[in-house]
Specification:
By secondary structure, the chain is an alpha+beta fold. It is built from 6 helices and 7 strands. The chain has one domain: Pnp Oxidase, Chain A (Roll), CATH 2.30.110. This is FMN-binding negative transcriptional regulator.
């Protein structure tokens, strides 16, 4: 059942993960703490995220927890911000918080033979569009040493849940006032993206 705050298409969820790649990885079982890790989306032919690819330090207790029980919840926080009443001309309008989030229920597969790919692909994603992008070769011999202390993994998506609460419930006049007056250009861009024509 679709709701007002659902993404319009898989492209919206993909854009969130690509634009805000740092996820909280939370083991479904055990005592391991949650850990933040940057992850890369892998999609099917329709653009739906089918897996998330990354790496973790071997010394992180999350590795042992996920080896014992390979299920994890991944939480991505996209654009977000407080919407103060001073932006709106309606006296009775109350403050709110706009945000876009995605969570994935996943099954973890460790893929140590892809350690090099995990590091290279992440660097390429994060350096994309920069002048003189950084590559792992700049680390010299230290790169090989680093690779011995990590393990790559693929989080296979079992279920996806996304909420894009970005002002879709506001009247056109109120929405326009918020976008015109808010100080976060990034949040406003996402608000415009998710606004259906009215």
């Amino acid at each position: 059942m679709n709701t007002l705050f659902d993404p319009h298409s898989p492209d919206d969820v993909l854009a969130l993960v690509q634009g805000f790649p740092l996820a909280w990885v939370i083991a479904r079982e055990g005592e391991a703490p949650a850990t933040p890790l940057p992850l890369l989306a892998e999609t099917d032919a329709d653009g739906r995220i089918v897996s998330l690819f990354g790496h973790c330090a071997l010394r992180n207790p999350m590795v042992a927890a996920l080896r014992a029980a390979p299920r994890a919840l991944l939480l991505f926080q996209g654009p977000q911000g407080y919407i103060p009443p001073r932006l709106v001309s309606r006296p009775a309008w109350g403050p709110t918080w706009n945000y876009a989030v995605a969570r994935f229920d996943t099954r973890i597969e460790f893929v140590p033979d892809e350690n090099d790919a995990a590091l290279r692909r992440l660097a390429a994603h994060l350096e994309a569009g920069r002048d003189d992008p950084w590559t792992v070769e700049r680390m010299g011999e230290r790169y090989a040493q680093l690779g011995q202390h990590i393990i790559a993994f693929r989080a296979h998506v079992l279920a996806t849940h996304a909420t894009f609460k970005l002002g879709q419930d506001e009247g056109r006049g109120t929405f326009d006032e918020i976008v015109a007056g808010h100080d976060s250009a990034g949040l406003c861009a996402w608000m415009r993206r998710m606004r259906k024509g009215d």
